[in-house]
Amino acid sequence: MDLDRINALRAEPVASASHIIDGERRPASDGAEIEVISPIDGQVLTTIPAGTAEDAAAAVRAARAAFDDGRWSGIAPAQRRAVLLRWAALIEDNALELAVLGVRDNGTEIGMALKAEPMSAAATIRYYAEAIDKLYGEIAPTGPGNLGLVHREPVGVVAAIVPWNFPLMIGAWKLGPALAAGNTVVLKPAETASLTLLRIAELALEAGLPPGVLNVVTGEGATVGAAIAGSMDVDVLVFTGSGATGRRLLEASARSNLKRVYLELGGKSPNIVFADAPDLDEAAKVSAHGIFRNSGQVCVAGSRLLVERSIHDAFVEKLAAHARAMKVGDPLDPATSAGAVNSLRQLDQNLRFVREAQDAGREIVLGGARILEETGGYYMEPTIVAGVAPGDRLAREEVFGPVLAVMPFDTEDEAVALANGTDFGLAAAIWTADLSRAHRMVRRVRAGIVHVNTYGGSDLTVPLGGVKQSGNGHDKSLHAFDKYLDLKTAWFKL
Ligand code: ADP
């Protein structure tokens, strides 16, 4: 990475941002703005529009008009592919600028941000662009007197409400397949991570995406997000974020037009280490990264470590050693392995979980405190809490911070019971050299993705989605198209 370039970019002032509606930059209808605080130093970075219900409605109107007149839905898939490929190339051309801007906004360490944000977003958009002119409809196996055709049509206006931890990556998981399929989109970024999504929406216009096809409205979830969720003219709502907000979106759908709602919610993912794991050093290292990278602000983070009792103490010590070696601090220093916590609110929430565990007599093996307070930024030590009981809040609720809950187990059955003992079902991992046990555990653990002898790193070719209260529907892979393409039957009498 080019350190001089990073340092030059981090010193650049960031102009006040605008919504992008119908291809135009627009302020909030009442001119109100939200100050964007950088978690690196707690200073005001810039402002974004504090969008209003009126702004949300204008964006939905623009998206509806753009869908209905066919300026995007009505052109050949190969033409959409060409525009989206140009967009992906522009995102790549601007990758470092986007990564630094995103890090100043949300605090993720630059090494991860560069790969996981612009580069991943470009790859995602390219994947769906390349796929869209290779999808066919069907001819049904009817009797001789009929012809049954199954068309795949875009669903219409898609609204996407996305979070702050990986705005470009998660945004692209929605935008890539939604736009490739011919839909138009209203995107609502998180208050603390809007800047890069606004920037890539500008690049989309530059790439030739027609005005109104991708609209971005910033602001508070309770205002802009709620207005989008309650709109009578949004056909599909896709969301990544908290369970509490997910519930509100379902209610809003029920109260309005029954728009389809797809949710990717939280997790409390079990990382299960058996004594016969092939390489305990590797398991400890990967597990440390699986919870502490991006300060634990990863929906699939392995936040519960379940360890077979015979290796418990030794393994926890190994993991703590790797965690101690991680450098927490300035996210724009390429040597940093965990950057800033996104906001003061999130940091306070992390610390509350630790205090509660301490008060309940749990063992704080490592960390537990805010650090580098003199920088004004929001930094927290990697934290390991052992002896957590299955009923503890730390064992059941998502922290979304660098806090690992450790629990011992004696048998495979007990590991399964602990693993499945929360309301969530997003990710899991099994570390074992026993092939049969690995397959058994994959079947028994209820989660959308089960890693075996690794944690994280799954690529775009496999679906990501949760079971239980971790959500419904899938991002990534060709299965993501299911949310954005409807089936229509044409039934002919011959
Ligand atoms: P977190 O607590 O991690 O910030 P949220 O679910 O609150 O998770 O945020 C995820 C996204 O949902 C953000 O874009 C946020 O603005 C939006 N959001 C929050 N509250 C609402 C709401 N009541 N209606 C619609 N969107 C919301």
CATH topology group of the largest domain:
Aldehyde Dehydrogenase, Chain A, domain 1
Q: Could you say how many structural domains there are in total? A: 2
Question: N-to-C terminal Cα separation, in Å?
Answer: 64 Å
Which structural class is indicated by helix and strand composition? alpha/beta
Give structural notes.
This protein has 494 residues and is of the alpha/beta class. It folds into two domains: 3-265 and 471-491, Aldehyde Dehydrogenase, Chain A, domain 1 (3-Layer(aba) Sandwich), CATH 3.40.605; 270-459, Aldehyde Dehydrogenase, Chain A, domain 2 (3-Layer(aba) Sandwich), CATH 3.40.309.10. The protein is built from 16 helices and 21 strands. The chain has helices at 3-11, 53-68, 77-93, 95-106, 110-132, 167-180, 195-207, 221-229, 243-255, 280-292, 312-325, 344-359, 393-396, 412-419, 435-444, 481-484; strands spanning 19-21, 24-26, 33-37, 44-49, 138-139, 146-154, 157-161, 184-188, 214-216, 236-240, 260-264, 270-273, 304-308, 363-366, 370-371, 379-380, 383-386, 403-409, 427-431, 449-452, 485-493. The strands form six sheets. It has a seven-stranded mixed β-sheet, sandwiched between helices. A five-stranded parallel β-sheet has the order 9-8-7-10-11, with helices on both faces. α10 links the parallel β12 (270-273) and β13. α1 (3-11) crosses α4, α3 (77-93) packs across α7 and α4 (95-106) runs antiparallel to α7 (195-207). The longest helix has 23 residues, at 110-132. The chain is globular and about 70 Å long. The termini are far apart. Adenosine-5'-diphosphate binds next to α8 and α9. Adenosine-5'-diphosphate (ADP) binds at residues 161-163, 188, 190-191, 221-222, 225-226, 229, 241-242, 245, 248.
